[in-house]
Task: inverse folding
């Protein structure tokens, strides 16, 4: 169906304008009635964060998402565009997305007055109506609100005090859309005052010249509570006028963490990739940290398995626990170490995190006393060397030489008929967990031996 191209055609079509908050509310109500998914790809918030966001939108509130890094705050804000109309009409050439029936800019009003029903209309999509700004201390009022443009004034023959001399900032350009500010506390106080003034009064002052801009904007923010004292704070008048403050959180269960990692990690490598569930569990075991860490660890582990498969001429990549240990670069850069951690070094701390994950996964499946034959084998001089490039069948033959290892690993769920990669993962988990518990040791060359003082 052809969309109206002029103001007269738009009026004849029966189209009615509505505020962006009413638009979001109406489309949200429709989604709720239909039982449609509201925020695709958001895991773990169904009973906590998402209902609060829905309530805020139904109440037509501006809101802020408050939470630590890696809690999908920006992703949630960007997904709000799915609740907007597919496209809306604006006056052609308008910098502030003027409503054809109620233009707010002087340019828009003069255009309608001059051309009447022949005023040209253009349609903009929902993605064009979302404007996002990362707050930094150097953001200025000109960036967000606008500034006087002497060149624009000279070319148009306008006074500097004329509204037509203004170069509009991001917020006016987000008119009839969503304006998102990430890390709100990083904005200086005077910038927050400018935001507050727009929210409360609908006008701005640029270089001392007051300009009335009754903007139609859904304002949404994000903030990290750790930054409140480190870099700044939200001024009280602005905070008081943000309708809802919604707290986000890290995954509250291992299942949720695994689901997020599975969804976000890039595993399409051009050859089949097998990631045993035991390996996924070890990667996500240390819940309560930014979900970006297990995502990048899994991607790095898959890459190590991919490298091994390509080097050996294999047709598939099977991820092992050894690949997780090879993914230390994906962990060390995300660690913020205090004094004791700095003494150990990021690499040692990262290895310890993986070892603890192995121990926790082991404790959920096995009893340590059932591993006594394995421990005794190594205590009496037994050694097991594992090559990173070895095939699974060769690894399983090596594991078979350790008394009690295969029977114990076989008690893990899903062992019967499990692929070789899963069997290898179960055996590796037992050995790595015993290393973490200081019952046996693993040398730097990858050989498992008797326990040595202070060694893993």
Result:
């Amino acid at each position: 169906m052809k969309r109206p191209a002029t103001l007269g055609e738009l009026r004849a079509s029966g189209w009615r304008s509505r505020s962006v908050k009413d638009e979001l509310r109406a489309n949200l109500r429709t989604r709720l009635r239909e039982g449609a998914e509201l925020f695709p790809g958001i895991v773990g918030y169904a009973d906590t964060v998402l209902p609060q966001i829905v309530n805020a939108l139904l109440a037509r509130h501006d809101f802020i998402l408050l939470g630590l890094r890696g809690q999908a705050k920006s992703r949630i804000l960007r997904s709000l565009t799915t609740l907007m109309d597919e496209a809306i009409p604006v006056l052609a050439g308008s910098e502030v997305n003027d409503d054809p029936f109620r233009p707010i800019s002087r340019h828009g009003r003069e255009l309608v007055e001059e051309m009447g029903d022949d005023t040209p209309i253009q349609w903009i999509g929902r993605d064009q109506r979302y404007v996002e700004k990362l707050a930094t201390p150097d953001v200025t009022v000109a960036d967000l609100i606008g500034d006087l443009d002497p060149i624009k004034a000279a070319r148009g023959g306008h006074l500097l005090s004329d509204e037509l001399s203004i170069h509009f900032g991001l917020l006016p350009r987000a008119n009839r859309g969503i304006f998102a500010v990430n890390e709100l506390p990083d904005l200086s106080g005077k910038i927050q005052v400018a935001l507050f003034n727009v929210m409360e009064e609908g006008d701005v002052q640029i270089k001392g010249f007051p300009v009335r801009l009754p903007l139609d904007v859904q304002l949404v923010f994000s903030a990290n509570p750790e930054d409140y004292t480190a870099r700044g704070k939200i001024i009280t008048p602005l905070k008081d006028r943000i309708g809802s403050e919604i707290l986000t959180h890290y995954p509250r269960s291992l299942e949720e963490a695994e689901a997020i990692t599975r969804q976000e990690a890039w595993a399409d490598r051009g050859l089949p990739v097998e990631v045993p569930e035991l390996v996924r569990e070890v990667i996500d075991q240390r819940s309560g940290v930014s979900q970006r860490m297990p995502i990048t660890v899994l991607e790095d582990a898959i890459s190590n398995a991919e490298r091994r498969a390509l080097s050996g001429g294999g047709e598939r990549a099977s991820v092992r626990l050894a690949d997780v240990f090879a993914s230390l670069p994906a962990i060390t850069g995300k660690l913020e170490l205090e004094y004791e951690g700095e003494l150990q070094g990021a690499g040692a701390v990262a290895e310890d995190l993986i070892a603890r994950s192995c121990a926790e996964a082991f404790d959920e499946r096995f009893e340590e006393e059932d591993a006594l034959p394995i421990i005794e084998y190594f205590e009496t001089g037994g050694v097991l060397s594992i090559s990173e490039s070895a095939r699974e069948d060769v690894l399983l033959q090596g594991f078979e030489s350790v008394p009690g290892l295969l029977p114990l690993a076989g008690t893990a769920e899903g062992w019967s008929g499990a692929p070789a990669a899963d069997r290898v993962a179960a055996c590796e988990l037992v050995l790595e967990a015993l290393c973490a518990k200081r019952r046996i040791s693993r040398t730097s060359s990858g050989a498992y031996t008797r326990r040595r003082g202070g060694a893993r």
